[in-house]
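ENTRY TYPE: paired fold submission
RECORD: A
CONTENT: sequence, then structure tokens
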Amino acid sequence: MKTYKDIDEYILAQDESVRPRLQKIRSLIQQTAPDAIEKISYGMPAFHLHGNLVYFAAWKNHIGFYALPSGNATFQKQLEKYHTAKGSIQFPLSEPLPEKLIVDIVKFRVKENLAKVKS
């Protein structure tokens, strides 16, 4: 697995055609969770806020978005059109990014992580 020092390096290492999508996802997460800390985890961009928040990664035909199982379970209806697994969502490169859905999932994960801290 290739290692990256930070998200900037990760994005620059990806195909030029996918970089704007990765930057957009990063920006949406930063705006929605401004206190989250950026890092590389499992070889991909990740955000941490009182625990893992979300991850994302570029693949050949899609952007993988990882909201952990709880994010996928909560947004099951909105995710019907996407290929999903236990904690992953595939946003095809052939379609526009579902920006509102990404923001909604990140908001949910922030609330979930903050609730864990309070309990």
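RECORD: B
CONTENT: sequence, then structure tokens
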Amino acid sequence: ADSQEASRLGIPPGARVFRFINCLSLGGEPVIVDEITLPESLFTGLTEKRLRERPSTLYHFYQQTYGITVVRTEDRLRAATANEFHTATLKLALGTPLLLIVRKALSFHDQAVEYRRSYVNTLNYEYFKESVADA
């Protein structure tokens, strides 16, 4: 893991991790590119085949396959611009403004289980999150 990933996941720099890309489409149009990092120690035996053949969402896959339940997330939002990879994947011009969502997913006892950088094309969509206020 690089130092930023390690810090967010609470693992030592250089610890082994799995990294993969998840692309989400709406109406057949690619809209979000997720760059996801998982600590190898929590996801023993993870393969590209298992990821591709998962029946549902990633968080459901984590729970069903590895017994890891994501109970909360911390999201940080900022502006970014499309690099060459995002340009090709999202079919945009180089430098197109994107919304960057940096997420840390946590399981029970605040154990970090996923570090995710989501690049969102907001040209035709917006990011919406609803939260329940504490009583």
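NOTES ON RECORD B: The mean pLDDT is 93. The two ends are 39 Å apart (CA to CA).
STATUS: closed
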